[in-house]
Amino acid sequence: MKTVMITGCSSGYGLETARYFHEQGWNVIATMRTPKPSLLPQSDRIHLVALDVTNPQSIAAALAASGPIDVLVNNAGISVVGAFEATPLDYIRKVFDTNTFGVMAMIQAILPQFRAQKSGVVVNVTSSVTLAPMPLAAAYTASKMAIEGFTGSLAHELAAFNIRAKLVEPGYAPTTRFSQNTELRIEDLIPEAYADFARPIFEGFAQPALVTREIDVAQGVWRAANDTSGQLRFPAGPDAVALAAGN
After folding, report:
1. I need a surface site. Which of 77, 86, 225, 240 has the fewest CB within 10 A?
2. What is the rounded distance in angstroms from the CA atom of residue 51 to the CA atom of residue 59?
3. Total domain count for the chain?
4. Listed residue (15, 5, 6) closest to 75, CA to CA
């Protein structure tokens, strides 16, 4: 029986992915900063572990408590939507700490285990903002684009150890709590000078033509985790698939 560790399982994609892998018969190590047992089924194949991907001691403790892992899913992330001009650089650094350096830290910590067992899969969850330029998402896009380039390069250097690296690129999911996963109010990040520009964009977000469901992403992660074809990118959700097809 295989084991998956998933970061950011308190809501949205991570929570649904944990449920999905459990339904497929896997052992699931569901991590979140503050474990909440009520979120997931009571099962001897689900283990909740406290984890802050920005804290090296937390990462080490989580891995030590988890035992052998077959697949690492880096899903934890924070958002920032608004005009770049109005976005504090201190907050952008926090976004990168989680979305970029947190991913790198998790991978660096687990690679010795993967090399020793001569197998392993890393699945990095990015975003459809990497598939086409999108307005009012410059800093967030930068944090995810960094992981796209990083993962492509990493896949080459890990192949010699029978370790695979994959990307899952979710589309826009208005039903998730991700857009609220930020300390800043969107209103504060849209200065008056940007109001006319931003208005139709937010109206489009309110009534999207295509949307991604949490299950789309969970299934995308499942496909990536089990793929042996050499495919690197897995767009998840109809909008992400459409964007990928247009590239």
Report:
1. 86
2. 6
3. 1
4. 6
How many helices and strands (H and E) does the chain possess? 8, 7
225 in Cβ contact with 4 (< 8 Å): yes
User: How does pLDDT run across 172-206, given as a tens digit for each residue?
Assistant: 887 554 444 456 677 778 888 898 989 988 888 77
Query: How many angstroms separate the Cα of 152 from the Cα of each of 10, 92, 125, 157, 232?
Result: 28, 24, 13, 9, 7
Give the range of the structural domain holding residue 17, as residue numbers without chain letter: 3-246
Can you tell me the distance from the alpha carbon of 247 to that of 234, in angstroms, rounded to the nearest whole number?
A: 14
Instruction: Measure the CA angle with vertex 166, ends 127 and 67; round to 5°.
Output: 110
Tell me which of 13, 140, 172, 194 is the catalytic residue.
140
Residues 6+ apart with CB under 8 A from 11: 176, 177, 178, 181
**Confidence (pTM):** 0.93
pLDDT of residue 45: 97
| Main-chain dihedrals φ then ψ at residue 132, nearest 5 degrees | -160, 145
Q: How many CB atoms lie within 10 A of CB 141?
A: 21
* Model pLDDT for residues 158-174, shown as the tens digit of each residue: 999 999 999 999 998 87
Residue 172 is among the residues annotated as catalytic for this protein = no
pLDDT at 207: 76
Q: Is the pLDDT of residue 76 over 60?
A: yes
